[in-house]
Design goal:
This protein is an alpha+beta fold and 204 residues long. The protein is built from four helices and ten strands, in the order αααββββββββββα. The N and C termini lie far apart (51 Å).
Length: 204
């Protein structure tokens, strides 16, 4: 890049190096300021309270559940074209069931419509890596129902990462809950999972 700048703008290589270094410093400072601002917003709990409020309205007896924010993104390719799809969820879970509320985050507003609740007996398989926080849920026919991750920290990097939510305790509680359910569901259905995304079943 330094050589390109020097060639286009008639600069010496040392001058081009200084310009690039200066630009990188400005970008770094901007990103750090943005991260600090978003973390401060997360610590106020504003977005978290919005999602928790949605769960209160959409899940009966929501006070009996641990609540969390879940999200997922997945890349697909067609030729040289890459498409990334994003999903956002309100999650409520306890020993009896997990309820998932799909969220919409268009234009900075968080809204929702509908919910689905799953019990252990509804599931044919859960695939995950026990020390990680992504989870795949499958039905009895081993068709994927949904996948999401419950991250301890979610910050507004861009419009595709729309919330500032810190949920350290909730994320740890989800992983512990998920690990227990994964053991019980998979044992009941006689399956052994790989812990690899989109490749859940171990070959016999």
């Amino acid at each position: 890049m330094n050589m390109i700048l020097a060639s286009i703008y008639g600069l010496t290589v040392p001058q081009a190096v200084m310009i690039v270094a200066g630009l990188m410093a400005v970008i770094y400072i901007y990103l750090k300021i943005k991260e600090k601002k978003n973390r401060g917003a997360a610590e106020t709990g504003e977005d978290k309270n919005i999602v928790w409020g949605i769960m209160q309205r959409s899940v009966p007896e929501a006070e009996k559940y641990t609540k969390a924010y879940g999200c997922w993104e997945w890349e697909t390719y067609r030729g040289n074209t890459k498409t990334t799809t994003y999903w956002y969820y309100g999650i409520a879970f306890n020993e009896e069931q997990i309820c998932i509320v799909p969220l919409s985050c268009e234009g900075g507003d968080i809204s929702y419509s509908g919910s689905v609740c799953l019990r252990k007996e509804d599931l044919g398989m859960i695939n995950a890596k026990k020390e990680q926080n992504w989870t795949e849920f499958y039905d009895k026919d081993r068709n994927e129902i949904l996948t999401f991750t419950v991250d301890e920290e979610n910050l507004k990097e861009d419009k595709y990462h729309p919330v500032n939510i810190i949920q350290t305790e909730e994320a740890k509680a989800f992983v512990a809950w998920r690990n227990q359910w994964m053991d019980e569901v998979n044992r009941a259905n006689g399956v052994e999972v790989t812990g690899k995304m989109k490749k859940p079943l171990k070959k016999k």
